[in-house]
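Thought: the user wants the 3D structure for the chain below. I'll pass the sequence to the structure tool as-is, report back what it returns, then summarize two notable features.
Action: structure_tool
Action Input:
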Amino acid sequence: MRVAMCSALVVVLAVTGSSVNVRAEGSAFRTSMEATANAYARGQAAADAAASAYWNRVVNLNAGRRLVIRTRDGQVVRGTFVDADDVSLNVRTGTVRRGFARAEVTVVTSDPKGSPAGAYVGGLLGCLVGSALGAGLTRQCRGFTEGDNAVAGLACAGTAIGFGFAGYYGLRVPAEVIYHAP
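Observation:
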């Protein structure tokens, strides 16, 4: 993108400069062209500094941190951070080590973590609600049979499992954006 903008600036300056007859060194046109070029260069330097500051967050990560990496071609990779330098990022996906060039990485986020405590609490609440539901079902039945025990057990187990998943995923720690390409 930066190369395209620089090329466009050169083309614009070349086209407009050839149509204007500039003879004096200290002309207002030449001064405004230099001021515009300097302002553009300062803006690019600020953008480069901001991008480097964001990438430094990736470089300073602790080894073993779970990451989600999105690339320019739309690929999403989940892996464990190995190392990074100014031009690349290396992660381990299972047993395979993968490297990504900084230019192809668009977003790096932490992998959201589920809540084991939420799963335990949800499972316990699910057991209580499922037991009450199962007891209510068996009381409503006039002719109590072995199938009614199975229904009560399924109500208890299914509710506990459902509440456990709800606690695990409902109370998870959200993903943190570590790097976003400019």
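Final Answer: Structure generated. The domain at 61-111 is CATH 2.30.30.100 (SH3 type barrels.). The chain has three domains: 2-56, 61-111, 116-170.
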